[in-house]
Design brief:
The structure is a single chain. It is globular, with a radius of gyration of 23 Å. By secondary structure, it is mostly helical. It is built from twelve helices and no strands. Helix 8 packs across helix 11. It has one domain. Helix content is about 65%, strand content about 0%. Keywords: Membrane, Transmembrane, Transmembrane helix.
């Protein structure tokens, strides 16, 4: 329970408030500068829906993304409508979980559209078709089983399909990389800080909480192992902006009279508050770095283990 010192103007006149505000605002300003200045390679539509595995039908990636979306939607529905209600979104975990669900929704749409376009695009004449058939014969693939596969795989040879991704494609990539850091951050904080040291009625471990703080990362990492999306480093800035937005949201709620903080380390009426805020700000770098290492390992190890099956990044 909060006491009278936790309410009113006096709460915001503590010395910790401007220090924590600076720790929050400074990374946000730097992130905005990076987003505005850093240029990256163009994103092509193919990268949004094609697997990075040569012989994997893109329909499998479509099915996986749809499955992940349905599972996450079911978990979030239970959390919001059957357990906590709207107060579930006081927590950073639910923000990130919902964002990951949006990524899989967009990924499902792009995968479905990409498969549909390929299946309805005329096959390349002579050369590309013959090369595809010859390759499949060499790999001992039966001729009567490759008709639909030809239509999907032949898109690798169609230059006209190498179009730039539009607004929604870039948004999908931004959400993907924002979730990459956010799911690592939420799961590490939950399993390494909240469960061992701060377990109570709000953080008690159960099947639903355990699923939300594990399946978010599992689903995203499996998608990473399958997809062809590039992972430019500078989108750490979007991850930082996402977390800063959550902190601003919490401060706004508290200023409007919600005296309970969903995470004790966001509380401002302790001399340790600036240290907590600084530690959380710094933690964004290794959390994003962990996921970047996963992507780097994927692109360096898998081509060596599966040289004939794993394609290089676009």
């Amino acid at each position: 329970m909060s006491n009278s010192n936790d309410e009113g103007l006096g709460y915001w006149l503590r010395w910790q408030v401007p220090v924590c505000a600076l720790i929050t605002v400074a990374p946000s300003v730097v992130a905005l500068y990076v987003i505005s200045k850093v240029k990256t390679d163009p994103l092509f539509f193919n990268a949004l829906w094609k697997p990075q595995w040569r012989n994997l039908n893109p329909c499998w990636l479509l099915c996986y993304r749809a499955f992940a979306f349905i599972c996450m939607a079911r978990i979030l529905f239970e959390e919001v409508f059957l357990v906590r209600g709207a107060s579930a979104f006081y927590f950073y975990t639910q923000w990130t979980f919902a964002l990951a669900m949006i990524y899989f929704a967009l990924g499902t749409v792009f995968s479905a559209y990409g498969c549909w376009v390929c299946l309805n695009t005329p096959l390349p004449e002579n050369g590309a078709r013959d090369a595809f058939l010859k390759r499949d014969v060499e790999e001992n693939v039966a001729e009567d089983d490759v008709t639909d596969e030809i239509k999907l795989q032949s898109c690798h040879a169609q230059e006209e399909f190498q179009q730039r991704a539009g607004f929604w494609g870039y948004l999908m990539q931004i959400i993907y990389q924002t979730c990459a850091g956010a799911v690592i951050l939420t799961d590490i904080v939950f399993w390494c800080v909240l469960v061992p040291f701060l377990s109570n009625s709000h953080f008690g471990l159960n099947m639903l909480m355990g699923s939300m703080h594990s399946l978010n990362a599992v689903f995203l990492i499996l998608d990473t192992l399958l997809n062809s999306l590039p992972f430019p480093w500078f989108r750490l800035a979007y991850f930082v902006q996402w977390s800063c937005l959550y902190v601003v949201f919490q401060w706004t709620l508290h200023a409007c009279g919600f005296t309970w903080w969903p995470y004790p380390f966001l509380e401002l009426n302790t001399p340790w508050a600036p240290l907590w805020y600084f530690a959380l700000a710094v933690a964004h770098i290794p959390c994003y770095g962990i996921y970047a290492l996963i992507v780097k390992a994927k692109n360096s190890i898998l081509p060596k283990l599966f040289p004939h099956a794993f394609l290089r990044s676009y």
